[in-house]
Amino acid sequence: MQSYYGKFEYEALRSDGRHIWLLINARISNELEGDTFTIDDFAPDLIVCKNAEKQMLFARTVIENANYFKNKFLFICLITIFVISLYSNVATIHV
Q1: What is the phi-psi region of residue 33: left when phi exceeds 0, alpha when psi lies from -120 to 50, beta otherwise?
Q2: Options 2.60.40, 3.30.160, 2.10.70, 1.20.120; CATH of 1-45
């Protein structure tokens, strides 16, 4: 009998005070002893993955902000060109 409790991420505090992320994959062991059983698990440190994830989210925010301001700038340029062309047409009619 092997049933998985599933995989989940867990933020833990090490004895030296550092925060680490673990990937827990627990399951009940095949070796039952009477009414007791063993839970096996595997918990690698995911801190490198979590740091990369934070950096990607930050980069995405920077890119989205840059795109927002680019669109605002282009809109202002378009309005400016429209107004200039509007007034230049009026000026040529009167000349």
Answers
A1: beta
A2: 2.10.70
